[in-house]
Structure formats: structure tokens, C-alpha cells
Design a protein that fits this description.
There is one protein chain. The protein is α/β, with parallel strands linked by helices and 297 residues long. The longest helix is centred in the middle third of the chain and has 29 residues. Helix 7 packs across helix 11. The protein folds into 2 domains: 158 residues, NAD(P)-binding Rossmann-like Domain (Rossmann fold), CATH 3.40.50; 108 residues, N-(1-d-carboxylethyl)-l-norvaline Dehydrogenase, domain 2, CATH 1.10.1040. Strand 1, helix 1 and strand 2 form a beta-alpha-beta unit. The chain has a 7-stranded mixed sheet with strand order 2-1-3-4-5-6-7, with helices on both faces. Belongs to the HIBADH-related family.
């Protein structure tokens, strides 16, 4: 049974995960390049601090090159029987490639999509794992310490083999795009109609007894309590990449995703100071119908 793990990456998510694991009875040795938060000075020291036998290291750093770099270093210092958990938002294809590379040294690999954000320490994390049955069984004490209280199947899933965890998280994030966009469009329409004098109160009333209630709705209410007109924020919205991957997979599988696709494209539109496409639409309307247009400033 796993009772002590290493954790690489002690940012907003990683630091809170370390705290929740410790609260759940799992000893954690954490490593981060920042000396003020790390438990050990180097990645090699982290591995040395773990008990001999089946060592477990959870990697919680940004997807892409940072993750690839950490996994390459771990391949040098871990041995046969050890297990790496990749908990970032890596593309599932990369999981399969990294797992094959680590398997050359007899090192197991489990990919875990982690949902819960900064609230995970208090509420627990939703976990979607990909890996072998044996590795998942070995790691269940760790997953049980992190997941929300209640039935295991409501906060954890062994989604399939390596890659399945991050594929499930990718689709989860695509759905999240669509839900956030729907709430955002509803907010804009409510605010635009002078008939509605209490936009915040309207959202708050939806929190109980309605079919649109959700944790995202609760967070929308919190945001409006802090800033009723959202005047403190710019309308630029980034995307992490998982929305794009979701749409790519849908195209490859010929699965229609009109809502998620539109939500992704809305984020692209948020970054435009001016829209070349809409300028073209205005020009065409002027050309074929003589419709009025506005001159550029």
C-alpha cells in the first residue's frame, strides 16, 4: 500500500494537493525549483527521500516541454517497479509516447486528469485516471485521499489504459467551455435588457431548484458579488489547448460538436481588437445592398 509519494510542482494546484494528501494520511515529499516552497533541493533528492521498493512520483507541472523535461529526468533516477503519475493537462498522445519510453526502464505510467482548481483542497479533486489495472490498484490510497468525500465512483474513474485519463479530462474541459459560454451569453442578454434590474440576483435565484444550477453557476454568482458589472476585467480569454484538442478529435471522429466549437471560437474572437471578418461582412453588405457602414476610426 502506498503511504509516501513524491510530488513535483508546487504551484497553485500542486501545493494544495500536497496539503490534501497529507491531511488524508499520505506522506508527501515535494519538489519545486522555488526554494521557499520545496521540501528537497533537487529532483534526485526527492527520489532518494522515498522509501525503497515501488516508489511513486506525481508530476504536476505545465503540459508540454516542462512535463517532458521532468519525465526525462525521472527516467534517469527511477528504476523497475516505480510508477510515475502525470497529472497535468498533457495531450493523451504524448502520454502514450512517454509511457512507452519509461517502460523501457520498467517504470509504470499513469495519466490523471485533475479537476477542482483552487477549490480542490477544500472540496476534493475529480480524478480521471488512465493506466494498467495493477498500477491503478496500487495507487488507490493516493486517489482516495485526493477525491471528494462520498462514493468513489462520483469523484474518481479508471477511464481506461494510458492516455484515457487525459482524453477524459480533455472532453471534460471542452464541455466546460460550452457551459461557461452559455452562462456568459445569458449574462450579456440579461445585462443588455433594461427590464432586468437585478442581474446578480437573477443568477443567484437560479442556484436552487432550477435545471441550470451548477458549481459554475455558483462561481458566476461569486464573481458578480465582487464586481456586479464585471468592470474590473478585460474581455480577453485564453484557452489552454484542450478545447482545440477536443474539436480536433471530433473532426477526426466525425462527431458534431457545435456548442464546444462555438465556445472555442468565441475565445478567439475575444482577443481581436478589431475583426477583419466582420469588416469583410460590412463591405459585402455595402456592395450588394448599399447598406450603411461606419468609417474606420
Amino acid at each position: 500500500m502506498v503511504s509516501h509519494i513524491g510530488l513535483v510542482g508546487l504551484g497553485k494546484m500542486g501545493a494544495n494537493m500536497r496539503a490534501r494528501l497529507r491531511q488524508g494520511g499520505i506522506e508527501v515529499t515535494g519538489y519545486d525549483p522555488r526554494p521557499e516552497v520545496t521540501d528537497v533541493p533537487t529532483l534526485a533528492a526527492l527520489v532518494e527521500a522515498l522509501p525503497a521498493g515501488k516508489r511513486v512520483v506525481w508530476v504536476m507541472v505545465p503540459a508540454g516541454e516542462p512535463t517532458r523535461g521532468v519525465l526525462a529526468e525521472l527516467k534517469k533516477v527511477l528504476t523497475t517497479g516505480d510508477i510515475v503519475i502525470e497529472g497535468g493537462n498533457s495531450h493523451y498522445v504524448e502520454d502514450q509516447e512517454r509511457a512507452a519510453e519509461l517502460a523501457e526502464n520498467g517504470i509504470g505510467y499513469v495519466d490523471v486528469g485533475v479537476s477542482g482548481g483552487v477549490w480542490g483542497l477544500e472540496n476534493g479533486y475529480g480524478l480521471m485516471a488512465g493506466g494498467s489495472d495493477d498500477d491503478i490498484a496500487t495507487l488507490m490510497p493516493v486517489f482516495d485521499a485526493l477525491r471528494p468525500e462520498g462514493p468513489r465512483e462520483e469523484g474518481f474513474v479508471h477511464a481506461g489504459p494510458v492516455g484515457a485519463g487525459h482524453f477524459a479530462k480533455m472532453v471534460h474541459n471542452g464541455i466546460e467551455y460550452g457551459l461557461m459560454q452559455a452562462y456568459a451569453e445569458g449574462y450579456e442578454l440579461l445585462a443588455a435588457k433594461g427590464l432586468i434590474t437585478d442581474v446578480h440576483g437573477t443568477f443567484k435565484a437560479w442556484q436552487r431548484g432550477t435545471v441550470v444550477r451548477s458549481w459554475l453557476l455558483d462561481l458566476m454568482v461569486r464573481a458578480l458579488e465582487d464586481d456586479p458589472k464585471l468592470a474590473k476585467l478585460d474581455d480577453w480569454v485564453e484557452d489552454s489547448g484542450e478545447g482545440r484538442w477536443t474539436v480536433d478529435e471530433a473532426i477526426a471522429a466525425a462527431v458534431p460538436l457545435p456548442v464546444i466549437s462555438a465556445a472555442l471560437f468565441a475565445r478567439f474572437a475575444s482577443r481581436q481588437e478589431a475583426s477583419p471578418a466582420m469588416k469583410a461582412v460590412a463591405a459585402l453588405r455595402q456592395q450588394f445592398g448599399g447598406h450603411a457602414v461606419k468609417a474606420a476610426e
